[in-house]
Every structure is written in structure tokens, then in C-alpha cells.
Amino acid sequence: MHLAASGEMYLETIFVLSKEKNIVHSVDVSEHMGFSKPSVSRAIGLLKKGGYVEMAEDGALTLTPAGREVAEKIYERHTVLTAFLTRLGVDAEIATEDACKMEHDISDESLAAIKAFVDQQI
Question: Please, what is the average pLDDT of the chain?
Fold first, then answer.
């Protein structure tokens, strides 16, 4: 199953929230993303069906290995692109917003080149 950018965003959000708190529920995702609970519920249902997310009886969300792989990839893209744009002088808030848009479409080759550039700047 190919994930759309929105699916990737949900996985990344669950990943980020799980780093901040032990248990992540749909309501946490809803609040973090600013989406309605029914929209999040629909998306989580599709991610469960695709094998990316599991939900415990208490509603706790966990990423499957496949979901974690996608989430980590998107998260890395986001952090690399944000660092790149900020180093170019883009305002941090704008850099974060733009990175969020770019992270879903950039090729692995371009990302690797940007990552190498950012690593040289440190």
C-alpha cells in the first residue's frame, strides 16, 4: 500500500508524540495536528488496515515495524530539510513549515546531498 503525504504525516506525528510521552492516543494526534477526531479516526483506521499502526484495547497507538520505518524516514527528512533551510537564513518557523511540505516529495538522492551539505556546515 502506497501512503499519501497525509498518511506519512500521521505516522510522523505518532512517532514524534511517542518520543514525548509513553502512550499516544488518537486524541493526542488530533490535538497535535489540529484535525477533528473523526478525521483522525478515519486515517488511523486506514493506517491500521495498511499494517502501519496497531491500536490496543485502551486506544493506545503504536507503530508497526513498517509504520516506524516510514515515520523515521519522514522525520529525518523533516529535520534535515529544516536544518538546511535555517542555515540558508530562512526564518525557523517558515523553514519548519516548508520542510513539512518538501519532505514528502524530495528524492533520496537530493536529500542525501542536502544532508551531506548540512553535515559539512556543522
Answer: 92
